[in-house]
Structure formats: C-alpha cells, structure tokens
Amino acid sequence: MKDIEKSKMIYDNIEIPKELNLVVQKAIAEAEEKRQKQTVISFEEEKAETQEKRKTKKGLRKAFHYSMTTAAAMFLALVVGLNSNEAFAMEMAAHPVWGGLARVLTVRSYHGFDQVKGIQKDIEVPQIELGDLGQAAGGAVGQANVDIQRIVDSHLVQAERDFEEYKKSFLENGGSEEEWDGRTMDLDVSYDIKYQQEGILSLVLSYSEASASAYEKAYYYNINLANNEQLTLEDFLGENYVTIANGQIKAAMKERMAEEGAYYWGMGEEDDSEMEGFTTVDKNTRFYVNQAGNPVITYEEYEVAPGYMGIQEFEIIKE
Question: Quick one: which of 308, 310, 311 has its CA closest to 297?
Fold first, then answer.
C-alpha cells in the first residue's frame, strides 16, 4: 500500500480538461474577431494584442496546474503525515470521514540502501487503529500492533547480525575484501489487507531477505472488530473445522500432485521421505481470509513440501 508513489503517479498523469482548451480557444477567437473589425491599428498594437492572448492562454493553463499541484501537495502531505507522525494520525482518527470501524496506517516507511552495511531496505510497517480508541485499543488489535513492531524489529536486527557474520566467515575462510565488494542483502517488509468487510479485518505481514540464500515468512492477523477478538478457523467453519479443513487440504494436495506435478511429503504411495508433512490443522493453524470470505490455510517452505514449492495455500470452502 504505497500511497505517496500512487499519488505522485496520479498527479503526473493529470490531463488538462478539454473544457479548458475550449475556453482558451473561444477567448482567442473573440480577440481575433475584434482585431479584424478594427480598420486602423498599428503593428505594435497587433503585437501587444497577440502577446496578451498568449498570456491569457498561459495564465489559464498555469492556474489550472497550480490548483492541481496544490491539491496533490495537500494529499501528499496528508499521506506523509499519517505515515510519519503519530500525533497527526491520532488527530485524523477523530474525524469519521477518514475511516470506519477500523483503519490500517503505515507508521514506518523506509526505502534505501545502507552503503556501510551493504543492505537494501524496503520497509512498510502497519498499525491498526480501532474506531475512537485509535492505536490505544487493547485486545486483539492492541496485541497485533505490539507483535508487528516486535517481529519487524527482531527480524531487522537479526538480519544485520547474520550478514555481518556471513562476511566475517567469508573473510576468515580465504575471501578478500575485493571479492566481497558488491555483495548485498535485500530486506523487505510489507503488508496486505486481505479482507475488511462485515466487521472482519484480515491482514498479512510479510518479511523476506535475500543474500547468499533467500528466506521469507508471513504473519497473519484475523480480527473480529466488533468485539476486538482474534478469529479462529472454528469461527469460520464451525465445530467440525478439523474434519472439514483436513479433508479439503488432502484432496487439494492429491489433485495438485496429479495435475501440476507438485509433491507433498507423506502423500505419495511410494513416498520414502523422512519428513512428516501434513498431518492435521488445529487451533493454532495459520490462515488469512480471502475476498470470498473463506479462510485460506498457509504452510511455510518445508512444512508440507520441498522448499522449491514455496509457501503453500489452501482455500477452505465453508460447508
């Protein structure tokens, strides 16, 4: 959700309305008709009139662009204020026009390259605000905000330590500074609002890093905004959620193995892997809510399948 880049793109693509050109052309035509009716007019007067027409056209266009620039600047200022100033965000929350039952704001945003550490960071950290309580909300919302900040800070600190250790090991094992030069690490933190309807908010926080190897992890927050409580699979699928989810996941795995050449540990008839693979869902199983309002159960790399298959997702249809 990059509101500043989006607003800039909108401004850069602003087109001058056709109506403005019509007004300008009409003004020019009227001036030309007036000039033709004058039987005695000096060259200097003609020149002055032509210059005046040009000023009129330029002035109209300049006025239009100034108004658009002002509007765009105000919008950018609002976005920057919400993204960087906690007090400003709380003040905006007091105005109902800026949001409904809940809103998600980017409270930390950074995109840049640290030349000293050799780390490229692209970071967007969210914060959930609940109605009049704003960021002061407790319950599931408050806990989610605390968790998100802790998770992001922990990952960033650990990633920098790991990259430093990687460089140290590289040099200690015969590598040179010249050979190391140019090696970088990419860190990415982003979020996606998967569902926000009917008093339910489903948000996914994603973290990834890439250097000598790649690593990614996702965190899921599904909240009933009416009572500020965390939602579970049972809330969506009922008391038989284990049977329902297990059946659909196994069926999907078999279908993918037959049609897509996928591979899941423990699912093949001649599987000799020592990996346990998928067994069952439980109350701690991770999921998000898609636009259809269905829970989508997710498994990280290596949980139920080889790492090359990446994160695995299974939509569970309510029965």
Answer: 311
Q: Where in the chain is the domain with CATH 3.30.565.40?
A: 99-231
What whole-number distance in Å separates Cα of residue 188 and Cα of residue 31?
59
* 239 close to 287: Cβ distance less than 8 angstroms: no
Cβ neighbours, 10 Å, residue 81: 14
Number of H helices, E strands in the chain: 8, 9
Q: Show the DSSP H helices in the chain as ranges.
A: 3-12, 18-37, 43-84, 86-93, 139-172, 177-180, 233-237, 241-259
Q: Which CATH architecture has domain 99-231?
A: 2-Layer Sandwich (3.30)
Count the residues in the chain: 319
SS3 231: coil
The one-letter code for the residue type at 139 is G
pTM metric for this prediction = 0.66
Q: In CATH, what class is 232-319?
A: alpha beta
pLDDT mean by block of 10 residues, the chain; 319 residues: 42 43 48 46 42 45 40 39 43 39 90 92 94 73 95 95 93 93 94 93 96 88 93 96 97 93 80 76 96 96 90 92
Token reading at 60: 């109209």
Q: What does the angle CA 164 – CA 168 – CA 173 come to, to the nearest 5 degrees?
A: 150
Q: What angle, rounded to 10 degrees, do the helices at 43-84 and 3-12 form?
A: 170
The strand pairing partners of 197, in sequence order, are 200
The boundaries of every CATH 3.90.640.20 domain in the chain are 232-319
Helix 18-37 to helix 43-84 angle (10° resolution) is 160
DSSP secondary structure letter of residue 308: G
